[in-house]
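Students often ask why inverse folding is considered easier than folding. One informal answer: many sequences map to the same fold, so there is more than one right answer. In these notes we will look at a single instance of the problem. The structure comes first.
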């Protein structure tokens, strides 16, 4: 139970808000009934999206939304889970992806100029998709950082 991401986030937030120290008093702040909160934190119950949104906001833990969407939501389980990185790490990944984007741009233009993807172009096409995924991941990481640091809502 101590490894549960929702419990960890609540305990971390409790350092600044003592009422979050236990589920009994936390229920009044996150608007999740105590037994349901306990079940979520013990792993016996998967939270509803609105529960996750409430915990993420109250605990200042936007990473809970990404965790839920990539680990617990049936629609998003194939997406990568964002790892909260510091701004320098995110910047390096973002700049690398942007640099690779120029090559990807040229490649996709070459591949699609005839309106179809030939067998010998599939590998290049997959590399373009990989570059775009890296760029998307970097953008999502930067957005998470902005939320975590109060710049974005």
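Output (designed amino acids):
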């Amino acid at each position: 139970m101590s490894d549960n991401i929702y419990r960890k986030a609540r305990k971390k937030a409790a350092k600044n808000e003592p009422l979050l120290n236990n589920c009994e008093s936390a229920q009044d702040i996150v608007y999740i009934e105590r037994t349901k909160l306990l079940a979520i934190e013990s792993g016996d119950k998967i939270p509803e999206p609105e529960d996750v949104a409430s915990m993420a906001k109250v605990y200042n833990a936007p990473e809970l939304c990404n965790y839920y969407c990539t680990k617990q939501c049936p629609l998003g389980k194939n997406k990568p889970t964002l790892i909260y990185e510091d701004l320098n790490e995110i910047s390096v990944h973002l700049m690398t992806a942007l640099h690779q984007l120029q090559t990807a741009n040229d490649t996709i233009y070459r591949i699609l100029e005839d309106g179809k993807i030939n067998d010998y172009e599939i590998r290049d096409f997959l590399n373009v998709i990989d570059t775009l995924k890296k760029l998307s991941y970097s953008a999502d990481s930067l957005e998470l950082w902005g939320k975590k640091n109060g710049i974005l809502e």
